[in-house]
Structure formats: C-alpha cells, structure tokens
Specification:
This protein is α+β, with helices and mostly antiparallel strands and 125 residues long. Helix content is 28%, strand content 44%. The chain has a single domain, classed as Nuclear Transport Factor 2, Chain: A, CATH 3.10.450. A hairpin with a 6-residue loop joins strand 5 and strand 6.
Length: 125
C-alpha cells in the first residue's frame, strides 16, 4: 500500500471506531506510539503495549458522545490528521472536548510510528 492508501484506510476505519482492525491491518508489529510529555502513557512499542494502552483509555471513559476524524494530509511517507471527540470521563459530570493532531510514519506499507499532539489534562493522568 502507498502512504496515501494507508492514510485513507486508517481514516475510514477510525471513523467506524475499528481500532483493532487498524492495528492488525495497517500497523507494523514493532509500531511505536508516542504520547505527549505529561500524558498517562508516554512512549509504548508493539501491538501488546498499544492494546494495553487502548484498554486503559477505555476504562477511563464513561461515555463517548462524538468523534470526528479529518481527511489525511500526506507528504512522502508521512500523513497527519486531526481527531476531535467529546467524552465524559469516569468521575466527571460534564463532557470534555478533546482535540489532537495525529502524525503517522509509513514504511513498506505499514505504520511504523504514530505520535499524538494534544495538551494533557491533569484529571486524566
């Protein structure tokens, strides 16, 4: 797959919340996932670590209200997109708006790294 094809497929699956399919179909087994400094996860490597991070995230969320994923911007073997969501975290009464930029690096048709840019919120750490 080209970088554009990987980007388009990741956006398609993200919009359907098919995270496991993204990992299995598009990610390298040695995937590196980088969260912002001050966030709860830091940097993790590999499918198992990403699956653990996803499960931890799910346990923090009481309710997902909405999610919006932008079309990708592609340059060589990189692509970026934005994800905006509204969630109610456990222990909170009001929904929180979350907004992040996601950057992906593709090598040989697989995502080898993902990096997220957002301001960590202290109550989620």
């Amino acid at each position: 797959m080209t970088t554009q094809e990987v980007a388009n497929r990741l956006v398609e699956l993200s919009r359907e919340s098919k995270w496991e399919e993204i990992y299995q179909e598009l990610f390298s087994p040695e995937i590196v996932s980088i969260e912002p400094k001050g966030g709860p996860w830091g940097t993790v490597k590999g499918f198992e670590a990403i699956a653990k991070k996803a499960k931890e995230w799910e346990t923090m969320v009481e309710e997902f209200h909405s999610m919006e994923v932008s079309d990708p911007i592609v340059a060589e073997n990189f692509f970026a997109l934005t994800m905006k969501s509204k969630v109610t975290m456990k222990g909170q009464t009001e929904p929180t708006d979350m907004d992040e930029i996601c950057l992906y690096n593709v090598v040989d048709g697989k995502v080898v790294s993902e990096q997220f840019f957002y301001t960590p919120q202290p109550e989620f750490v």
